[in-house]
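So, can you check this record?

>
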Amino acid sequence: MEEALNYTIDPACLQQPPLSVDVIRQLDVFGVCLFTMLTAMSSVSLLLYLEQCVYIYKKMSYPKKSILIWINGAAPAIATMSCIGMWIPRAVMFTDMASNCYFAVVVYKVLVLLIEELGGKTAFLQRFTGKQFKISTGPCCCCCCCLPTVPMSRGLLFWLKVGALQYAILKTALSVLAIALWTNGIFDLSDLEITGAAIWLNPFIGVLTLISLWPVAIMFMNTNVYLRSVKIIPKYAMYQLVLVLSQLQTSIINILALDGTIACSPPFSSQARASMLSQQMMIMEMFIITLVTRFYYRRTYEPISFEELDNRQNALKDLDGLVEHDV
């Protein structure tokens, strides 16, 4: 029993993340190759994004081109910030803030893109005003199947936009507040005491995230049938994948570090090591997502013909009626 209690903890395990110079000095051959490869991946992601911005700017019309530039920049921006955080561990708080604030804007831009693909706000309201929209969708109300459908109106569209936009505004404001508290020694992710700022701030941000995702999910679930020709389902899947990897995956890794599952490895504490692991994984994942999104966004699509869609749906309904009649 005494032997179990008589152990020492390396002082580095209790210190803040190391300086970038210390990180470079402790790299072995494998570490140099790994850092070089990941840096090249993030650089290629950024270069591909810049080239795609030029393509979108030339081929697309306003305001759609600005929306696409924002959405396409999600994966490259996160990869670039992760690369900076990998080389400069003490800057992770700032790089994470930049990545999260950028993605908060992307959430709103995805909602606007769905509306623009349907012809813009005016055309959308002309076509869908009065039509019943299902609101029992994820992430807030996927289990509440008893929720009634709601008729689309100008007011409902306004509140859907507000629900998505509030995250972009409040997330940025709360991130600035968190950094201000962190520089003052008040905000610490490892401090889970009831008197700590993190235990109050992070759950509140999580609630804001869920509220912002709900309007986007409502819009997608009720309109994706009209947007199959512009490959909206794989585009939406890439947006969801960036969300899961940048938010959920990072949270899980941080929880494992706080729980002690990810061990300390000097000069990295367990939390700094978890952060380093998260940055490295993020670079590889965002590089792959950049390549996939480039395939779907770097092309022009034919304008959506609602008449053809209506005729096709009516034909399917008539066919179903004939089959039921024959049975």
